[in-house]
């Protein structure tokens, strides 16, 4: 039964609402920006109205299946782990887009909201907001780059473990967190590499000038 529920979660997560909303707006969002078929790229391409709807739908596809299964007692304890992880993976590896999906941010918030009655998702949002403020200050008031945003998402998820420890969550929650961290890191791997490369090249140029 756990396998069946995990498949249901994966199917729910794989529904690419933001991509389909973009097509309804005559925009293939995979051809814009970083090509991400998620809600935030939809926001930039098709405007805030479509973007907000995309965020809501991507959130709900993570929230509804987990919340429903838990409320009915279909899954509990460690049995929640494969279902929660599969739901996020469905967005990242959607069969509707030839196994290439989005970054998984909105669906992540949906899953954690269902798992912890919004507590962990709110904590993650607060952490991301704090990191964004710090990044803007360090960037002298300028907007952050897409690469920095990707780094903040990963660092924010990594930092989230402190909140889990503070609230004394059960071990299976840490399993979901670790899997989520790996997924988020994977989906942002290109941004992280580009940021590392840019920092390395700047440092190399600075050292060359100093010599």
Automatic annotation (TrEMBL):
The chain crosses the membrane at residues 73-97, 117-138, 150-166. Pfam families: G3P_acyltransf. One of its GO terms (cellular component) is plasma membrane. Its main location: membrane. The keyword Transmembrane applies. It catalyses: an acyl phosphate + sn-glycerol 3-phosphate = a 1-acyl-sn-glycero-3-phosphate + phosphate. This is Glycerol-3-phosphate acyltransferase. It comes from Thermoanaerobacterium aotearoense SCUT27. The lineage of its organism: Bacteria, Bacillati, Bacillota, Clostridia, Thermoanaerobacterales.
